[in-house]
Design a protein that fits this description.
Number of helices: 11
Largest sheet: 8 strands, parallel
Number of strands: 12
Order of helices and strands: EEEHEHHHEHEHEHEHEHEHEEH
CATH architecture of the largest domain: Alpha-Beta Barrel
CATH class of the largest domain: Alpha Beta
Number of domains: 2
CATH topology of the largest domain: TIM Barrel
Helix content: 25-40%
Length: about 350
């Protein structure tokens, strides 16, 4: 049998034959307050997420302070801002990382981050991050991928906007850099993204094509797409998470609130559990209902020696008599004993056929 690809983050095995690994993406939903970021981690733990993920950058490490046309955002959630203004507002202050990591570890929830340059990797290494995520927009930054891979930690690469060739290049860079445990996430880099853009049938193709643990980074507004992805083999689900969708932060409007994250954790694991294995046998929950299947019953009083006719028996519920498939084989047989009306028929009611 083929070996199921797997990775392990902080002792948790992640694979298609294990319950889905749920990542709550904190992103920019701290809205400039450390207390909010700490509370988001608490709620992620309470909701049942396996991990909470940060983003580690500053405006200066991710873009240039420039207002020329190519640095301006037109349309969408961040219309009218420059890239520098957006990231200045959205970034997680580096001084917060240590208290956030400590808080998560005290709560017993895994915490790691997406670094956006080498200095961010160095910071996260000082905090002993257990894994790294490469964001979709950085999937083409092969030098960054190699630098992250050189840590020897498990890596997750999000593939939004990347074609198959670019995905393979990112995978090759990770392996060349020394990564031994690698997962990829199918992603649509729209904020929010419509469900019909997700083409979830891509997930099993990615699993076969790249031979890696595969999951979903989901930017839709509800949980339907994420739960459906589990049925197609997704081992990881990442969703943006906030305390309040109306909080006014850069990512709040397309993030899950606590009750929704709890539902995602519950329902995606239920979906995985329901997959089970190929099994045509009778299930434990069915045992008590076998007696209510159809079987053959006498519908009038039948006497010893009588020849059974089709209008003297019927296929009805419950299932204490012969199976309906034997109807044709018993019509025309002679009874060896009386059979009262409303009684089940059994083989010992009939003479054996001559051989």
């Amino acid at each position: 049998m083929p070996i199921t690809p797997s990775i392990s983050i902080a002792g948790r095995r992640i694979a298609a034959d294990a319950p889905p690994y749920i990542i709550a993406e904190l992103s920019a939903n701290h809205n400039g307050r450390l207390e909010t970021a700490l509370k988001i981690i608490e709620e992620a733990k309470r909701s049942g997420a396996d991990a909470v993920k940060l983003q580690t950058y500053t405006a200066d490490t991710i873009t240039l302070d420039c207002d020329s046309e190519e640095f301006q955002i037109h349309g969408g959630l961040w219309d009218g801002k420059t890239l520098y203004q957006l990231y200045q507002e959205a970034h997680m202050p580096w001084a917060w990382h240590k208290p956030l990591f400590e808080h998560a570890r005290n709560l017993g929830i895994t915490i790691f981050s997406s670094p956006f340059d080498n200095t961010a990797v160095d910071l996260l290494e000082d905090l002993n991050a257990p894994a790294y995520k490469i964001a979709s927009f950085e999937a083409v930054d092969l030098p960054l991928i190699k630098y992250v891979a050189s840590t020897g930690k498990p890596m997750i690469i999000s593939t939004g906007m990347a074609n198959a060739e670019e995905i393979q290049e990112a995978i090759d860079a990770a392996h060349e850099g020394g990564c031994k445990e690698l997962a990829i996430l199918h992603c649509v880099s729209g904020y929010p993204a419509p469900a019909e853009d997700y083409n979830l049938r891509t997930i099993p193709d990615m699993m076969q094509r790249f031979g890696l643990v595969t999951g979903l980074s989901d930017h839709t507004l509800d949980n339907t797409t994420a739960i459906a992805s589990v049925v197609l083999g997704a081992s990881i689900i990442e969703k943006h998470f906030t305390l309040n969708r109306d909080g006014g932060g850069p990512d709040d409007s397309f993030s899950l609130e606590p009750e929704e994250l709890a539902a995602l954790c519950r329902d995606s694991r239920t979906a995985w559990s329901a997959l089970g294995e190929v099994d045509y046998g009778r299930k434990a929950s069915e045992q008590g209902n076998v007696k209510f299947r159809r079987s053959l019953y006498a519908i009038k009083n039948l006497k010893t020696g009588e020849i059974i006719s089709a209008n003297s028996i019927r296929s009805v519920r419950p299932g204490y008599g012969l199976a309906p498939k034997y109807l044709e084989s018993i019509v025309g047989r002679r009874l060896t004993r009386d059979v009262p009306a409303n009684s089940p028929l059994a083989w010992d009611c009939f003479e054996r056929p001559e051989i």
